[in-house]
Amino acid sequence: MIVPYIAVMIKMVTAGSHAAPVRGRPREFDMEEALDGAIRVFRERGYHASSIGDLTDAMGLASGSIYKAFKDKRDIFLAAFDRYTLLRTAQMQQVAGAAKSARERLRDLFAFYLESSRGVEGRRGCLVVGSAVELAIFDREVAARVGASLANNEALLAGLVREGHLDSSVPRGVDPEETARVMVYLTQGMRVVGKAGRAPPDPSITIEIAMKLLT
Amino acid sequence: MIVPYIAVMIKMVTAGSHAAPVRGRPREFDMEEALDGAIRVFRERGYHASSIGDLTDAMGLASGSIYKAFKDKRDIFLAAFDRYTLLRTAQMQQVAGAAKSARERLRDLFAFYLESSRGVEGRRGCLVVGSAVELAIFDREVAARVGASLANNEALLAGLVREGHLDSSVPRGVDPEETARVMVYLTQGMRVVGKAGRAPPDPSITIEIAMKLLT
DNA sequence: CGATATAGGGAACGATCATTTCCTATTCAA
DNA sequence: TTGAATAGGAAATGATCGTTCCCTATATCG
Fold it and tell me: Residue B21: which pLDDT band, with cuts at 50, 70 and 90?
């Protein structure tokens, strides 16, 4: 009797308290698919320009159903933000774990960010950047999540610089934390410029210039 | 008879067709002060979260008066954007013209951007970044202005790199255009992170790391 | 099987927003 | 000095938006 209760609690925690309860009619829609639709809308239009109508279309739900699963529009946004950062962190860690040397892994991350900032994906934009620009100043909770996401990226990059010290692919003189901070500026700036649709003709040149930070 | 007409036309062009006409009751408010108020509102809240009520407060005008001077909310925004980029470009050119060597002028520009991304000013944000993120994808005219502003900054930075070749403060191997592109990423990223309220404890270290791009 | 609990969905509601209207005030032209 | 033109400002308007309500459907518990 207590085991399923614990399982439910764990699922509720991982799903951010948006998991379906045990009693009553079960949820018919897929929460992850619905949130993917919400992510698409919020990335393209931002928070304020996304209407509930936009969200019902993209999530495949009626407004009544949305308000059964979420407290309000902001609650949808926070759930979408959390899923976005979850997926993005997974992608980054995958990219950052492929190559042999730490230097090459950092190069792969730059390429990944540059690719994310190109074409349709670039125009769609980054939800973290969008939240920072549109919401962080007046919403403490959003600001905290944006800060945590940036700190997370910074830590990942700093860790790679430190690994580079160990495998001798990055000179000891390169400060991990300070360099990672500048690299975060660089990557977030790529997303901004990508939103404006200005992509570099030859990304490989851009990457090599960015790699000078590891000198 | 024709001379004042020409003068009026020139003023209308420079003021973006928002100048007061010759006939009728003259405008009582100062257009530049009003636009400064609009700039403050749009920088803090973005476009969609800024209500006409916010703008009447910040511009010191009633809604009826605002609609006498501007076609609609978007027209106010475009005028504010143009004034913002005008002022910002002037500031940048002033900063970029002080030091002796081109390398030092580039360093001053990094410091200027980092300072603009700190504290209250940083939280207030950059109107170009905000426009790129919130509006560029669905508003061609805004996208064009954002693109022009980024291209302008890029050209300014590239020009300094080229000057650095001439005064030998920047190695010849540093490509002006490609390096300027990366520097734009860097500076726009600073504004994003500044919006989130995360400023570097010691800006001078950050600046020196950024200067590695000129290696 | 009946009671309870929750989901799905669409219509209704209340608030807010951008914009217009209308009236007064102030200028220039004739 | 009168008329045309425009500014200032407050109230009215119409549309849109987020949210709630209500009804039906489907599950579990006793």
Answer: low
Kindly report, residue by residue over A94-153, the tens digit of the pLDDT: 999 988 999 999 999 999 999 999 999 999 999 999 999 999 999 999 999 999 999 999
Say which CATH topology domain B1-80 has: Arc Repressor Mutant, subunit A (1.10.10)
Q: What is the fold, at CATH topology level, of the domain defined by B96-215?
A: Tetracycline Repressor; domain 2 (1.10.357)
- Whether residue B18 contacts residue B80, with contact meaning beta carbons closer than 8 Å, is answered with no
Q: State the span(s) of chain B assigned CATH 1.10.357.10.
A: 96-215
Q: What is the pLDDT of residues B117-166, one digit of tens each?
A: 999 999 999 999 999 999 999 999 999 999 999 999 999 999 999 999 99
Chain B, 186-205: which have a CB under 8 Å from a chain A CB?
186-193, 195-198, 200, 205
Positions 55-94 of A with beta carbon below 7 A from strand C are 61-65, 67-69
DSSP output for A74-122: HHHHHHHHHHHHHHHHHHHHHHTTTSSSHHHHHHHHHHHHHHHTSHHHH
Tokens of B213: 């791009």
**Is B144's Cβ below 8 Å from some Cβ in A?**
no
